[in-house]
Every structure is written in structure tokens, then in C-alpha cells.
Prior knowledge:
The chain is built from three helices and no strands. It is mainly α. Helix 1 (21-43) packs across helix 3.
Amino acid sequence: MPLNTDLSPFASNAGTNPLSTVNWIAWALVIIGAINWGFVGILGIDLVATIFGPMSMLSRIVYVLVGVAGLYFLSVPFQEHTAKR
């Protein structure tokens, strides 16, 4: 499958809203994950574990959702570009 470099995470078929709902949610989760890992690396504080408890069910859900959002953005360049120009 060829790499599609024309499609960005901000592409939308609607034309009026540059970010789809899925992209907004995925971006929010990726940003949460980035901030969390920044705190872990700089301060040694895991914000997700601090808020929801270490490896609680809610923490695990947040970690899984952040991971899925990251994988979603890894797949974006390989998605078919169907928007009309």
C-alpha cells in the first residue's frame, strides 16, 4: 500500500470543519499522553496514575485509549484520500 502524503490528520470531507470528531478526540488523547509522558520524564510523576490510581481500571482505559489514538495517527498517511479537491 503506497504512502499517501497528501492526507493529514486535519483533513475533512466536510470542507468547513478542518478536524473531524474522531480527529479531535484522537488529538486530545495524544496530547494527554504527551503531557503525561513529559511529566513522567521530567518530574517522575504519572498524572494518570495520580488522578485515577496506579493501574486502576480507569488508568488502564486511559492508557489504552491514548495508545489507540497514537496508532490511529500512525495509520493516517496510509488511508485512502477520498475528499474532493
